[in-house]
């Protein structure tokens, strides 16, 4: 690649402005001072160019800038001084080379200038619940409709991070999801006389992905060469016992030779890890699902109990580290063809597949921990050819390619997570009851609907049975709750750590009973009382005693053998944190859950002062936190709080 700032125009190569500010000059020259800037979801934002647009708008009130995007990534911020002791060194280690987005910083402070608006169709999960600007300018849209919403908003500038490739070629890499449709649409608008500019930001750290993501440079009006900078790493969550239980239950429902879609987070990591365990260590997997009491009849009917001989085909809007690991482990080994006749032939005779053909994994975008990016950069040519990063409309729906999609998506399992499930089986995944947006619809509705459209397909909603709110434990199986993401008429399979509820085609009565059976014991009676009050259950109905054992203590007992043997680990795909940092992270999360409101805080402090173990027991962790030798009462209290939390979360001494 030419050095930064060099302006060269060989055939098919886009101009390379010397600075991001020069990209802004080009855009203003062509579209004027009313700018609607489209930035990709998640990782693929052109951060330097975006910052240049935002700085220009802040300096010139005559510019009217609207940024339309989704999932703006921000480095984690410590909520308090104690958490900063852990987080600040980790943040510097992981994000030191990442160029922060200036508009995100100002928005978090509710300090956007009056001539700038930021519209998003998917928010960082839970990160902007109390941010007035983000809540006001949230746009509710299915992922497959987001491109239309952006175009209707009048987007006239698009800016995306791209990967450099052979002369005249670049890769949309992490975000072909909307760009494969949006950029050609802008080209068409320009032909029709409407001004539009398409800008790219080259980042040598971005993996070059082929297939549909590999495009000619002349799609772009200019490419700013930013050299190489850190790709935003999304921290991995620990997979605790409830998550492992959910993943193990879900892994029984996936059929060999089928299709797999998963989301992001600990529950999705647990599903991928459990599927890998089923494939590579079937004996240990069977032992774990046996102790959990998984429904073997449903497993045989819907999924299977054997390793994956034919393999799975991955078709997921998000390429996660878990899915990539399954691909590299050989589990995602069923390849499909994008030619209808050839796909029909492969279904009739799978053995006819040639070594050099077929796609094992279609994805719309990727984002994750640093290891995901490292693995993608180091793919062999053969592996890279079997991954097709493509349009999200191609992955998340059937329209426009229905015949081919039906042939490819055999026995599809669309596995997604929810915050809560109500008593009619509707999923509550993105918005609270008061209207505040937690995240967004994304592709969840589309996948749930597609499961009812495709023969042999099932939608699987994963939800933890309980959550901690304000220091209290509350149920996620609720009679009523927030705004619905997936409506009751699309109800299908729901899984908590306590089992599987098969809701498809069931009456409201049977749905209520099935959900009560997988709820936490502490909340079953209240849930049943509400069902009875609504007339959905007869007044004298009682749950069978076998369904009355749903407690965290029993779950821990059931999974103890698998935990003790090392089969179930907290980070099945590794961690960016050291073992000590992992233990401290869990301890601080435990403290945060119990530090809401003055009563809870007072109770916590009293417990720390009277019940905290000796500091010498956790010397390594205290050294890492800078609390081994406290010099004030505040530090002595912090030391005791950390020791108490480490003990309660089971950290090793």
Automatic annotation (TrEMBL):
Source organism superkingdom: Bacteria
Cited Pfam families: AcetylCoA_hyd_C (PF13336)
One of the record's GO molecular function terms: hydrolase activity
Domain Acetyl-CoA hydrolase/transferase C-terminal, residue spans: 368-531
Residues of the signal peptide: none
Keyword Ubl conjugation (UniProt): no
Family annotation (InterPro entries): AcetylCoA_hyd_C (IPR026888), AcetylCoA_hyd_C_sf (IPR038460), ActCoA_hydro (IPR046433), NagB/RpiA_transferase-like (IPR037171)
Entry keywords, A to Z: Hydrolase
Hydrolase listed as a keyword: yes
The protein's name: Acetyl-CoA hydrolase/transferase C-terminal domain-containing protein
Organism: Glycocaulis abyssi
């Amino acid at each position: 690649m030419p050095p930064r700032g060099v302006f060269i125009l060989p055939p098919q190569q886009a101009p390379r402005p010397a600075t991001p500010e020069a990209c802004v000059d080009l855009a203003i020259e062509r579209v004027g001072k009313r700018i609607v800037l489209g930035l990709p979801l998640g990782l693929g934002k052109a951060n330097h160019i975006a910052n240049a647009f935002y700085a220009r708008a802040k300096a010139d009130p005559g510019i009217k800038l609207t940024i339309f995007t989704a999932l703006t990534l921000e480095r984690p911020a410590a909520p308090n001084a104690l958490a900063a002791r852990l987080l600040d060194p980790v943040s510097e280690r992981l994000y030191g080379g990442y160029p922060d987005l200036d508009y995100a910083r100002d928005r978090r402070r509710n300090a956007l200038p009056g001539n700038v608006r930021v519209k998003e169709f998917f928010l960082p999960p839970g990160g902007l619940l109390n941010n007035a600007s983000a809540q006001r300018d949230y746009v509710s849209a299915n992922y497959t409709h987001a491109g239309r919403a952006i175009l209707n908003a009048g987007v006239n500038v698009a800016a995306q991070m791209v990967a450099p490739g052979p002369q005249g070629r670049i890769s949309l890499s992490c975000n072909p999801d909307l760009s494969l449709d949006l950029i050609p649409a802008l080209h068409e608008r320009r032909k029709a006389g409407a001004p539009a500019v398409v800008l790219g930001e080259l980042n040598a750290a971005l993996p070059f992905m082929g297939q549909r993501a590999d495009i000619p440079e002349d799609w772009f009006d200019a490419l700013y060469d930013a050299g190489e900078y850190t790709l935003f790493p999304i921290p991995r969550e620990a997979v605790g016992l409830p998550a492992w239980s959910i993943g193990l239950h879900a892994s029984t429902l996936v059929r060999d030779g089928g299709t797999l879609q998963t989301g992001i987070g600990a529950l999705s990591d647990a599903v991928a890890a459990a599927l890998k365990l089923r494939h590579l260590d079937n004996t240990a997997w069977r032992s774990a699902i046996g102790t959990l009491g998984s429904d073997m009849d449903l497993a045989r009917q819907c999924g299977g109990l054997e390793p994956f001989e034919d393999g799975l085909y991955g078709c997921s809007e998000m390429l996660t580290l878990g899915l990539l690991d399954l691909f590299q482990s050989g589990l995602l080994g069923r390849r499909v063809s994008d030619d209808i006749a050839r796909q029909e032939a492969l279904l009739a005779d799978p053995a006819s597949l040639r070594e050099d053909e077929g796609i094992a994994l279609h994805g719309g975008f990727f984002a994750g921990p640093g290891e995901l990016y490292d693995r993608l950069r180091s793919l062999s040519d053969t592996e890279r050819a079997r991954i097709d990063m493509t349009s999200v409309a191609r992955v998340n729906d059937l329209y426009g390619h229905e015949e081919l999609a039906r042939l490819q998506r055999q026995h599809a399992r669309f596995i997604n997570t929810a915050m809560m499930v109500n008593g009619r089986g509707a999923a509550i995944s993105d918005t609270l009851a008061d209207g505040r947006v937690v995240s967004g619809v994304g592709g969840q509705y589309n996948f749930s609907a597609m499961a009812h459209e495709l023969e042999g397909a099932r939608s699987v909603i994963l939800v933890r049975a309980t959550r901690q709110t304000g220091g209290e434990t509350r149920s996620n199986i609720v009679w009523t709750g927030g705004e619905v993401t997936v409506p009751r008429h699309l109800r299908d399979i729901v899984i908590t750590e306590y089992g599987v509820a098969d809701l498809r085609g069931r009456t409201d009565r049977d749905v209520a009973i099935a959900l009560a059976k997988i709820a936490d014991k502490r909340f079953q009676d209240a849930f049943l009382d509400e069902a009875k009050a609504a007339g959905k259950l007869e007044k004298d109905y009682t749950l069978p005693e076998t369904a009355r054992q749903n407690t965290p203590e029993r779950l821990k007992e059931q999974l103890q053998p698998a935990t003790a043997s090392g089969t179930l680990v907290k980070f099945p795909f590794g961690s960016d944190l050291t073992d000590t940092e992992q233990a401290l992270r869990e301890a601080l999360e435990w403290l945060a859950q119990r530090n809401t409101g003055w009563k809870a805080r007072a109770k916590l402090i009293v417990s720390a002062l009277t019940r905290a173990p000796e500091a010498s027991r956790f010397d390594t962790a205290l050294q890492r936190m800078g609390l081994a030798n406290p010099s004030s009462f505040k530090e002595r209290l912090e030391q005791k709080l950390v020791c108490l939390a480490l003990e309660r979360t089971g950290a090793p001494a």
